[in-house]
Amino acid sequence: MAGVDHVSAPSALTDEQVAGYLARIGLPRPERPDREALAALQRAHLGAVPFENLSVRLGEPIVLEPGALVEKIVGRRRGGFCYELNGAFAELLRALGFRVTLLAARVFGKERLGPPFDHLALRVVADGEAWLVDVGFGRFSELPLRWDERGEQADPGGVFTLVPHGDELDVRQDGDPQYRLDQRAYELADFAPTCWWQATWPDSHFRRAATCSRLTADGRITISGTRLIRTAADGSRTEQELGEAGTPAAYRTHFGITLDRLP
Predict the structure, then answer these.
(1) Residues of the chain whose pLDDT is less than 70?
(2) Cα distance between residue 188 and residue 73, in whole Å
(3) Active-site residue list
(4) Looking at the whole model, is its pTM more than 0.85?
């Protein structure tokens, strides 16, 4: 978008927090903030840190502050939803030398677009080129998408296109619109009201059922309610009913999450 100044703020993380974060996703510190490092970081994050709404279901406070987000992901070995995952990942990327801009998006529903700040995504500059990066949308691109490319972009997660819509961009996955990006730069605090609304509104889909999902080497593994779902790379899936007795053990085994009670 012409006239938008994508200035990256400095990271709020300490060297110790950065080291802990990299250990959490199983990567050494990259030598340079280049596109190869960015792709490796995104893929590793998707495989290690789950997309989950357990805090929403358990009534835990969600604090959109870098230290609190990293403590949850690294210290408590948890995941989160878009505001938390992309908010924390932005801080890690900044600490590693990438230029990062927080972007607001409206998610396409079955009947209409969601509200402003419905989703948080990232614009990241690596090797002088801008990329769309998103580790907080569940099943989505596994690798960064070229920001200025308007043709189809093949990715392990599907075929993606970024289609202009006035001053905004519609992001499509396999032809289906996923969200509409506002290209202006925002701060993490700008997302706090909608984050609170998503977590507390009785009709929010984040409150309907517990979900926890991460990428695997050959697909995706998910716990939805008390069901364990394995999705292969070709889209085929198997489901196993765990029951309330078996669900806590599955959280520990597949996500490293210990729960005092079911969400």
Answers:
(1) 1-8
(2) 17
(3) 82, 119, 134
(4) yes
